[in-house]
Amino acid sequence: MAYSEKLIDHYENPRNIGSLDKGAEDVGTGLVGAPACGDVMKLQIKVGADGLIEDAKFKTFGCGSAIASSSLVTEWVKGKTIDEAETIKNTDIAKHLALPPVKIHCSVLAEDAIKAAIADYRAKASKKDEPQAAE
Amino acid sequence: MDHFARLGLPATLDVDAATLDGAYFAAQRQWHPDRFVARPPEERAKASTEAAALNDAYRTLKNPLSRAVYFAGLHGVELPGDGQTIDDPELLMEAMEAREALHESATAEAVDTLAARARRDMEQALAGLGTLFLRHDNAAIRKALLRLRYLDKFAEEARARRTNLQRVKA
């Protein structure tokens, strides 16, 4: 089975590997897994004051396609608003990397990871907006 | 026919290895292709189908984890299939941290320590399943099996890591 050049490039030179401060208010963390294959993926976004995603990091333990999918997503979301980032579909990822049919689930994992990171960021932001009790 | 019935065994979570082997070899003899060489084609085909189903049953029931997953399926506990994701933070955090520790382990001894802990965790989780089935706590069964899947994957990765470390050393 031949893998696409883009896929191999993301696998061999993954972008944005690492972690952001999970506890920071401007960081959203998504942690998802695919138990059938034992993959686990963490994807984090850091949102600037202007509402744009200024940084994204990932850590994935899984097959090459899962690593490439998460690497690609971190690259795509940088500079986007969270609303724009939320529209990323697994089919876009699969198409860009030309994932073989048996590896489509890896792109599903990456889509779910970015959605979970956005949901986490939103949950933190709405908590911050709630009126604080006077001290 | 379910795998247990095919081997003539009661459907239970714990299966004695010798009993399972005995049941398998007896059934296998019954459907062995050699006994059907002189038989009509439809009987030969049936024997070969039965032999394949037997192998499948034996393979599934031999391994404690695949047996537990199968047994759970008979009790209506479905695990996520290919392409289905989970977001249980506690379970995934444990899996992520374990894999990070493995990734950072630089010696075969360090890998062995991690692998031994994972084995212990697996044994404990498997031993705890019986109680969960008695309580019909399907949510807890599902969670325990998902955790076991990740522990099993960890054990597999630990073996690969160990092989790599030894290759580098050699």
Structure description:
The complex is a heterodimer of chains A (135) and B (170). With 135 residues, chain A is an alpha+beta fold. In chain A, 45% of the residues lie in helices and 19% in strands. Chain A has a 3-stranded antiparallel β-sheet. In chain A, helix 1 packs across helix 2 and helix 2 crosses helix 5. Chain A is elongated, with a radius of gyration of 15 Å. Chain B folds into 2 domains: 60 residues, Helix Hairpins; 81 residues, Monooxygenase (Up-down Bundle), CATH 1.20.1280. In chain B, 74% of the residues lie in helices and 0% in strands. Chain B is built from 7 helices and no strands. At the A-B interface, strand 1 and helix 5 of A face helix 5 and helix 7 of B.
Low-confidence stretches of chain B: none
Largest sheet descriptor of chain B: none
Query: Which CATH architecture of chain A?
Result: Alpha-Beta Complex
- Judged by helices, strands and strand pairing, the structural class of chain A is alpha+beta
Number of distinct helices of chain A: 5
CATH fold node name of the largest domain in chain B: Monooxygenase
Strand segment count of chain B? 0
**Radius of gyration based on Cα positions of chain A:** 15 Å
Low-confidence stretches of chain A: none
Main beta sheet strand tally, sense and closure of chain A:
3 strands, antiparallel
How much helix is in the residues of chain B? over 70%
Task: Name a few traits of the molecule.
heterodimer, A: about 140 residues, alpha+beta, Sufe protein. Chain: A, 3 strands, about 20% strand, B: about 170 residues, mainly alpha, Helix Hairpins, Monooxygenase
Give a short summary of the structure:
The complex is a heterodimer of chains A (135) and B (170). Chain A is of the alpha+beta class. Chain A has a single domain (5-124), classed as Sufe protein. Chain: A, CATH 3.90.1010.10.
